């Protein structure tokens, strides 16, 4: 009669302890109380017939046997993830419904063309689309509500798989009557960081990316904080102040003369647009089809 199958939760805990360097930190990573975690590790060691961790005042580290155990545990958990993904894909295959979260700039300027191409190549796939900021998309991926997400933030958390799609340029824009519109020299990063801007809300990928590229800007209070690119454009056009937005979001307004682009000295503000998901590392089914469309070179 075969022995008991491994406890996958216990294996996940053991790997978290090894990765974090301590039982308490590993337990917190999995949202588990430390006494329960201690009992679970003790059960693993009893089943293994050897010590898997060396405990010390500075934390816990894997023994030589524990390192080998961890390597096999990772293989098993990866296989379990693949199995779970296959099972979910099989269950949803007939319906071909794909739950997608997309951040606002991508939703407004890229997703319509992607969905048109997906419908051409995979007409049976139906996409349930939810438009959020990047933080909201990542939250939906984390809690399993969304199968695939598209974000603009550089802050993709550990445990979430990411596929780089393309670069996107951020540009400084002002109204045609703003003093910066007629300045002869490019704007310096120091000037930009010290200027009160019209910005997107906290959690927006546009704002996250800009503050990652220009960290000092986070210390300057905004003149307005708004919840959409369209609202920011209207505020800038009305003279509220400068803004930093995706070129995708301001190209038409620049061409129409409603906004003016201000060059920035010695730097180009670029960010990555990224597809994100949890589960198996390799996408399959409708999620893989949409990611392939999104990552194809722009025509």
Automatic annotation (TrEMBL):
Species assigned in the record: Brachybacterium ginsengisoli
GO MF entry, a single one: DNA-binding transcription factor activity
Family the entry assigns: Belongs to the LysR transcriptional regulatory family.
Name by which UniProt lists this protein: LysR family transcriptional regulator
Residue span, HTH lysR-type domain: 6-63
Pfam family, one: LysR_substrate
Key words, A-Z: DNA-binding, Transcription, Transcription regulation
PANTHER family tied to this protein: HTH-TYPE TRANSCRIPTIONAL REGULATOR, HTH-TYPE TRANSCRIPTIONAL REGULATOR CYSL
């Amino acid at each position: 009669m075969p022995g008991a199958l491994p406890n996958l939760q216990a294996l996940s805990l053991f790997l978290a302890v090894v990765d974090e360097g301590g039982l308490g930190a590993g337990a917190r990573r999995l949202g588990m109380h430390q006494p329960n975690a201690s009992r679970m590790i003790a059960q693993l060691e009893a089943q293994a017939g050897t010590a898997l961790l060396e405990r010390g005042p500075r934390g816990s580290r894997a023994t030589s046997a524990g390192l080998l155990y961890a390597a096999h545990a990772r293989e098993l958990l990866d296989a379990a993830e693949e199995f779970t993904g296959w099972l979910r894909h099989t269950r949803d295959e007939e319906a071909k419904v794909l739950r997608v979260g997309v951040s606002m700039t991508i939703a407004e300027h890229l997703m319509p063309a992607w969905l048109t191409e997906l419908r051409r190549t995979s007409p049976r796939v139906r996409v349930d689309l939810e438009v959020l900021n990047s933080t909201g998309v990542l939250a939906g991926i984390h809690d399993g509500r969304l199968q695939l997400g598209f974000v603009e933030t550089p802050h993709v958390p550990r445990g979430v798989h990411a596929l780089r799609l393309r670069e996107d340029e951020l540009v400084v824009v002002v109204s045609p009557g703003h003093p910066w519109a007629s300045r002869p020299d490019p704007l310096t990063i120091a000037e930009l960081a010290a200027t009160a801007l019209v910005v997107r809300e906290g959690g927006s990928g546009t704002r996250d990316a800009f503050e990652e590229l220009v960290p000092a800007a986070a210390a300057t209070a905004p003149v307005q904080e708004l919840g959409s690119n369209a609202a920011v454009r209207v505020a800038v056009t009305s003279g509220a102040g400068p803004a930093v937005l995706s070129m995708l979001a301001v190209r038409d307004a620049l061409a129409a003369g409603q906004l003016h682009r201000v060059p920035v000295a010695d730097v180009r503000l670029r960010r990555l647009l990224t597809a994100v998901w949890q589960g198996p590392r390799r996408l399959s089914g409708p999620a893989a089809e949409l990611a392939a469309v999104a990552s194809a070179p722009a025509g």
